[in-house]
Amino acid sequence: MSSAPPFERTRTTAEGQGEARPATARKPLPFASAAILGAGLMGRLLALALARQGCRVELFDAGGPLADGAAARVAAAMLAPLAESAVAPPSVVRMGHYALARWPELLADLAQPVFFQREGTLVLWHRQDAAEAARLARVLARTGEQVPDLPPMRTLDAAGIAALEPALGNRFVQGLLLPEEGQLDNRELLAALLATLEALPNVQLHWQAPRSLDDFRPGEGERVIDCRGLGAQPQWSALRGVRGEVIRVHAPDVALTRPTRLVHPRYPLYIAPKPNRVFVIGATEIESDDMSPASVRSTLELLSAAYAVHSGFAEARILEIATQCRPTLPDNLPAFRQPRARVMQINGLYRHGFMIAPAMLDVALELLREDASPLAERFALAPRPEPIAP
Questions:
Q1: What tens digit of pLDDT does each residue of 326-380 get?
Q2: Which helix (DSSP H) or strand (DSSP E) does residue 186 occupy?
Q3: C-alpha triplet 150, 130, 127: angle, nearest 5°
Q4: Residue in 219, 235, 234 with CA at minimum distance from that of residue 341
Q5: Please, what's the b/e burial string for 127-157 (b: 16 or more CB within 10 A of its CB; e: otherwise)?
Q6: What is the CATH number of the domain that holds 128?
Q7: How far apart are CA 97 and CA 301, in angstroms?
Q8: DSSP-derived secondary structure letter, 163
Q9: How many distinct structural domains can be found in the chain?
């Protein structure tokens, strides 16, 4: 294969209860070495999976080991298939439900601990937004009919909300609980994957080493897998960036135990609690590949909405205001492509990266081993036919 250079213990608070991973025969991989382009979430997961099956892996990334240029670093990493059905079709919901059971398996053997929990998602709204909340509840109920394996949502009154999150007191009189949904710490995960890969003798990591598919001509027994996200845009012109903005704060006066979403007609806010009273706050989604800093308006809206959920955010300390563009295809769905023999592209995870990454990983492994995937059929992941650009 030609290229320019030579080729935590898991912390859990709930048991995984999603769909079981199908039993598949562990036949040997039909190739001995693989080059993976892009060391974001998918690139690291796939590199580790292949290396553990005896494959020699070279992982190339345009950035450094901290994944500073990856969309995965700027994310809340919520694993919320029912909640996301407000904007996602049943196929993505099924992938998210499948992944909830897979994440504990993937985390269990990493070299460092990764925060993971399945305490559900709390959905709240103010009285003036009751009509929007009723519309959302109808969407979630319809999803429950389409994907009956999902645990049904529970309606909550003020006492039910206070029982789940005492810190909220009586601020909200109605809410929804989406049971068994989860979250993890994205930066702990990226670091744990890196540490695990660094310890494997059959893995070579190449940082500040941008590569294109044109740099490789894989021969028999070799594979090239492109996981570059928006970095693959020159070869996959349909990709576009969807901008997201998140704020990380340290709020010692706020005690929330599960991801909380605030219904609003313009910006559906989420607050994801991480260890040590760190909270990730986000809502904005802008059709733009602009990577400039967050605007004053969006920052004020995010912080004001968080304060409306819990007044303790008034004394929080802002740790970071970050922006990132998520790789997205025209239908907002993830996809696989095989632009030529022995080359695979994985892209378009949009805003669902952490939620669906284990499902995408297992489909990729089936395709790489068998050149077919029952999981892909189950998740309606048909290969994209668009030809690669010259």
A1: 999 999 999 999 999 999 999 999 999 999 999 999 999 999 999 899 999 999 9
A2: helix 186-198
A3: 125
A4: 219
A5: eebeebbeebbeebeebbeebeebbebeebe
A6: 3.30.9.10
A7: 31
A8: H
A9: 1
